[in-house]
Fold each of these.
Amino acid sequence: MFTYIINMSWRLFSMHDTLVFMNTVLKTLLSRRSLRLFSDKDISPEDREILLKAALAAPTAGNLMSYTIINVTGQQIKNRLVKTCDNQPMIAKAPMVLVFLADMQRLYDYFDYSDVPGLCKKMDTAYAVPKGGDLLLAANDAIIAAQNVVIAAESLGLGSCYIGDIIENIEEHRKIFSLPPWTFPVSMLILGYPKHKKPEKAVSRFPKDFIVHENSYHRFSHSDFQRMFRETEEQFRDRPYREPAENLGQHIYLRKFSSDFMKEMRRSFRKGLETWNNGR
Ligand SMILES: Cc1cc2nc3c(=O)[nH]c(=O)nc-3n(C[C@H](O)[C@H](O)[C@H](O)COP(=O)(O)O)c2cc1C
């Protein structure tokens, strides 16, 4: 019977489709969608543990786990995050909220504990401190751990949504979470069970050749862009662009790139980088 099903599926679908059909990890990856409306059902302590276990199993540079996860359980903090993360009420309703920090503070505190300053003195070298490169690497660690949670959640029938606005209002986030200088909020996830059935149609993506280049980077022509944004433009057939935009590019510029939240994100990042670079 099993062989029959495989043979039939080979005939009906391409080899690739069959692989996706048979492989539950690929099925989970390809059917995932962001979830913003949660049911009242809570996440069991066991499932919460599994999600965190999946995070900690993620690849990590130098096996140093240069990130910290803040598990936000206080309702008042969630309510505050609604405001500090660009007024997104779904944050307060999410049963699980995780903030992912790039974290070099823990390692640096360990260096102090291990008398690395003494070692540097003995070697007559300067005691190096974390800089931008360390932040980027630690941010990689944090975001990769977050994505493991996304996929683990999906596999358990839960849904999730990233909240990029955690990069905003860094002064307030430092206060809320008592963050020391060599930590940086880089990602946030809200998780829970879906209130409604998942829509059949996945969110559209740009065609692969715009995203995957072979061997070297290349830039695109005007006609390429027409093809790249064709599907997105379709979605605007009965929706107006933001005034006074006359085309999709202008709309994206006004709605996203030069929006108030992006201005705040850039300001907040500059401020956070200043603190990181000065170590205070
Ligand atoms: C870094 C990042 C930040 C995001 N921030 C937000 C956010 O603040 N609010 C929100 O509703 N969705 C946010 N999203 C979700 C995206 O809007 C979503 O992934 C995108 O529209 C594609 O839809 P899909 O995830 O369902 O495929 C974010 C996603 C990423 C990866």
Amino acid sequence: MPSLRFLLCTIFFFSLLPACAQPRAPRDPGTLPLANSDAEKRILAVLEEARQAGKLYLSVPIADGRMLRLLTETVNAKQVVEIGTSTGYSGLWLCLALESTGGKLTTFEFDKERAATARKHFEQAGVASMVTLIEGDAHENVKRVKGPVDVVFIDADKEGYVDYLEKVLPLVRPGGLILAHNTQLGSVRDGYVKKVMADPSLETVIYNDGGGLGITVKKR
Ligand SMILES: C[S@@+](CC[C@H](N)C(=O)[O-])C[C@H]1O[C@@H](n2cnc3c(N)ncnc32)[C@H](O)[C@@H]1O
């Protein structure tokens, strides 16, 4: 017969198990991060206003916005190139990082109305001085960029990703990042993703908490 003490110890041990097995709840990647400065507060407020007001067009989800910011800050980016500004939503996420790295963003958009909204958002967020928005066809205009580029974010016409990659890759510094959105879409997966995965000078992983973000480092 097991002693009463043994029985009580066993019950106590098993009662602890569910708590130990419980994974620590991660912060919801779909919520905005906490602000640590007035500059961050201002940018986050515009991000939230734009979302609430529906002033977005095919913009990245918050999970990808946070990842864009984290990666850009991690590589201490001084020069970031974004292809596909839309209304400036992802640009604002990039600016959250550039506020602390002291870097600049060059972003490309061919839709006049969306470009005008993006300019407004950059003004409201107090980041207009760190952003150059170039209007027109990015396939042509991206040729004007001079390296070294620390981070490229590709999020325009999906069939154009390979062309953008070929044009910007020589400008990306060793250790720099090429980020590409919507990697789960057939045209991106079968063209761009295949190409970066097959290149031994690159290392690529796909982050899938948002809309599918290809994260590629140009090896040193
Ligand atoms: C998916 S949206 C970009 C979303 C934006 N990155 C964000 O998260 O807020 C794609 C944008 O690329 C623009 N675009 C598509 N093809 C383009 C081209 N060849 N040159 C410049 N902009 C282009 C579209 O007008 C559209 O606003």
